[in-house]
């Protein structure tokens, strides 16, 4: 995403935006600097251009997703099993921080609490247009939205940070990025309902498979740590990062997790307890777990066995 944003002509014509990205490889931190700088060095036009470049980067990602074929891919089968699409048994949950339309396109899926996309977005080759974007509900109360999510039938895929193709009540793209994610979530009723549901589910969950998450979001970490304390939640991590580096992140992030009401004066999380909740670690990419042409590879079997026995 960083390179796609940097290469955008809107960024290249603005020296201040280009320099920000060259000095910081995390485009979410750049977003924070642009929108929360105390020195007034960025104009509204700079912010509009940056957000346009971000939207175009997501559009490019969607173009790549469009051509994906998954009928015989073991990744599709695994997602279907995770969703309970085939088994129709117990309700299962996937909470994601991703904001692409992969699941919507491949599985013709409509997330809970959101209207269906207009047009033919659910056809894998279709082109999404601005007129196809979905406006998030404004008229419903938080309680009504939470009831919609709790009563939703079928696989539950919760996009905690919003999505490409979603429009907020203010008319802006509802992509939660930057360093003030929790505050942005609180401003959007549907995302707040999603977050509350995430807290409720994790508080009573015994184990969770965490794929690709770098543990850099304090509001997500706080929910996970709360699950560790309340229900002895076990983390099973799929991440190609070496575990010694991720352990360092756990120990860095733990002091930022405030217990109790989450106020600055509340005690922090215990870094050893946080890292100690890791019950399985799989330092592989998805391509390694789901190699082309192999329906049940050795790494996937190892992963399934760990989850079954955990």
Essential attributes:
310 residues; mainly alpha; three-stranded mixed β-sheet; globular
Average the pLDDT over all residues and give the rounded result.
86
List the total number of helices: 15
**What is the strand tally?**
8
Strand content: 5-15%
Oligomer: single chain
Into which percent range does the helicity of residues fall? 40-55%
- Summarize the main sheet: 3 strands, mixed
* Rounded radius of gyration (Å): 20 Å
Briefly say what this structure is.
The chain is mostly helical and 310 residues long.
Please tell me about this protein's structure:
This protein is mainly alpha-helical. The chain is 47% helix and 11% strand. The protein contains 15 helices and 8 strands.
Helices and strands in order:
Blueprint: H1 2-7, H2 9-12, H3 15-23, H4 27-36, H5 44-66, H6 74-83, E1 93-96, H7 102-107, E2 134-135, H8 142-150, E3 156-159, E4 162-167, E5 173-175, H9 181-187, H10 189-203, E6 207-211, H11 218-231, E7 234-238, H12 243-253, H13 271-276, E8 278-282, H14 286-289, H15 298-309
Parallel strand pairs: 1-3, 2-4, 6-7, 7-8
Antiparallel strand pairs: 4-5
């Amino acid at each position: 995403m960083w390179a796609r944003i940097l290469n955008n002509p809107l960024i290249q014509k603005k020296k201040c935006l280009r320099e920000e990205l060259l000095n910081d490889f995390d485009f979410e931190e750049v977003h924070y600097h642009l929108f929360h700088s105390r020195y007034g060095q960025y104009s509204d036009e700079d912010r509009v251009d940056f957000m346009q470049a971000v939207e175009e980067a997501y559009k490019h990602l969607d173009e790549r997703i469009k051509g994906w074929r998954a009928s015989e891919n073991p990744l599709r089968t695994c997602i279907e099993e995770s969703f309970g699409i085939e088994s129709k048994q117990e309700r299962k949950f996937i909470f994601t921080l991703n904001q692409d339309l992969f699941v919507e396109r491949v599985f013709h899926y409509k997330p809970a609490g959101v209207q269906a996309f207009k047009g033919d977005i659910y056809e894998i080759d279709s082109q999404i247009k601005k007129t196809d974007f979905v406006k998030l509900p404004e008229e419903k109360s938080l309680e009504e939205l939470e009831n919609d999510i709790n009563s939703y039938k079928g696989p539950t895929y919760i996009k905690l940070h919003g999505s490409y193709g979603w429009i907020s009540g203010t008319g802006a793209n509802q992509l939660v990025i930057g360093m003030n994610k929790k505050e942005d979530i609180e401003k959007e009723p549907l995302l707040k309902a999603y977050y509350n549901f995430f807290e409720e589910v994790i508080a009573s969950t015994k184990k969770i498979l965490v794929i690709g998450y770098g543990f850099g979001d304090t509001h997500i970490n706080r929910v996970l740590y709360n699950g560790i304390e309340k229900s002895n939640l076990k983390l099973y991590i799929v991440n190609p990062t070496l575990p010694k580096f991720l352990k360092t992140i756990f120990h860095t992030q733990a002091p930022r997790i405030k217990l109790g009401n989450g106020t600055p004066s509340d005690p922090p999380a215990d870094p050893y307890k946080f890292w100690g909740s890791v019950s399985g670690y799989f330092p592989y990419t998805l391509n390694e777990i789901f190699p082309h042409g192999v329906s049940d590879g050795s790494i996937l079997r190892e992963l399934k066995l760990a989850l079954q026995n955990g």
